[in-house]
C-alpha cells in the first residue's frame, strides 16, 4: 500500500506548489506548519519564503483519517 501523501499549497498568484511526504503523520505536521508559518519553496536553485497571508489553501491528497469529519453546505 502506498503511504505517500501529496501536499499542495495554493498561492494567491495562481501557482500551486506540491511535494510528497511519507505517511499521514508527516502530512499532518507539514500542512499544519505551512498554515502556521508560511511556505518555503526550494527548487534546488532558489529558496523563497512565502508568508501565511499569501497562501489560499493547503491540501493533503492521499487521505488523512479523522474522528471529526465535516460537511460542506452552501446557499
Whole-number tally of structural domains:
1
Return the average pLDDT rounded to an integer. 92
Which regions are unreliable across 5 or more consecutive residues at pLDDT < 50? none
At the fold tier of CATH, the topology name is SH3 type barrels
- The share of residues in extended strands comes to 35-45%
Structural class: alpha+beta
Largest sheet: 3 strands, antiparallel
Which sequence of strands runs across the widest sheet?
Answer: 2-1-5
Helix content: 10-25%
Walk me through the structure.
This protein has 75 residues and is α+β, with helices and mostly antiparallel strands. The chain has one domain: SH3 type barrels. Helices cover 19% and strands 40% of the residues. A 3-stranded antiparallel β-sheet has the order 2-1-5, covered by helices on one side. Strand 1 and strand 2 (16-22) form a beta hairpin. The chain starts with a strand and ends in a 14-residue tail after the last strand. 7% of the residues are buried. The mean pLDDT is 92.
Task: Chart the SSEs and their pairings.
Blueprint: E1 4-11, E2 16-22, H1 24-37, E3 39-42, E4 47-50, E5 55-61
Brief summary:
By secondary structure, the protein is of the alpha+beta class. Helices cover 19% and strands 40% of the residues.
List keywords for this structure.
1 helix, alpha+beta, two-stranded antiparallel ribbon, 5 strands, SH3 type barrels, 19% helix, 75 residues, 3-stranded antiparallel sheet
